[in-house]
Amino acid sequence: MKPLVALLFASLVSAGAMAADAPAAPKVDVAKGAESYAAICVACHGADGNSAVPLQASLAQQHPEYLHKQLMEFKSGARQDPIMQGFAAALSEEDSRNISWWLASQKAKPGVATQPELVVMGERIYRGGIPDRHIPACAGCHSPNGAGIPSQYPRLSGQHAEYTVKQMVAFRDGTRANNAVMQGVAARMNDREIKAVSDYIAGLR
User: Fold this and answer.
1) Which domains are present in the chain?
2) What SS3 state is found at 22?
């Protein structure tokens, strides 16, 4: 038994040393995030991250890792948007993290689908994709209720249909090029299909 005990002890010591060597997670100050958000973002995205402007994203309750990634890609130019690039250019990584984690703490307001004639098509695409054109189900990455998967895929539930259409078209025509998977999906969809799934997403709970 002694060799086994010694082995277990050595493993514990080794694991402890590895943990001690691992980089610490960046600290986040949500109070500073709220201040920065109020100074920079509120006009377009709403006081609590729920945008009242259909072409501007609602950001409340979005996964913070996703928000931080997008802000840094606006800053680097990996994601193109002249307005957002201008705002992101002034943000440090710390600012971006603080804003992103503050937004994640805000409650998203539910949206509503407004085009009943497209709901059936939108639901079919979101839940089942279009297999004969190799279009995967949106739910596979963004979850059946649109909540997404933290640090991997964004929350979509309740997002303005107009904003989602704008992003899908941008993926399709290559003006948004920071996600190859979404570019491939959007490239196979026509305008009606994009509008249908975007409207269905707006009403997801």
Assistant:
1) 30-104 (1.10.760.10), 116-202 (1.10.760.10)
2) coil
Radius of gyration in angstroms for the set of CA atoms belonging to the chain, rounded to a whole number? 21
Torsion-angle region of 185 (φ positive above 0: left; ψ -120 to 50: alpha; else: beta): alpha
pTM confidence score: 0.87
> What's the rounded Cα separation, in Å, for the pair 107 and 62?
9
Structure tokens at 116: 């009943």
The single-letter DSSP state of residue 56 is: S
**How far, in whole angstroms, is CA 30 from its chain's centroid?**
19
DSSP letters, 98-157, are HHHHHHHTSPPPP-----HHHHHHHHHHHHH-BGGGTB--THHHH-TTS--BTTTB---T
Handedness of CA 145, 149, 150, 154 (dihedral sign): negative
DSSP letter, residue 24: P
Single out the residue of 148, 116, 125 nearest to residue 197, CA to CA: 125
SS3 helix, strand, coil % of the chain, rounded to 5? 60, 0, 40
pLDDT, tens digit, for every residue of 93-119? 999 999 999 999 999 999 999 999 999
Spatial separation of the C-alpha atoms in residues 58 and 49, rounded to whole Å: 6
Residue with tokens 């596979």: 140
Computed over every residue of the chain, the mean pLDDT equals: 91
Task: List residues bridging with 18 in a β-sheet.
Answer: none
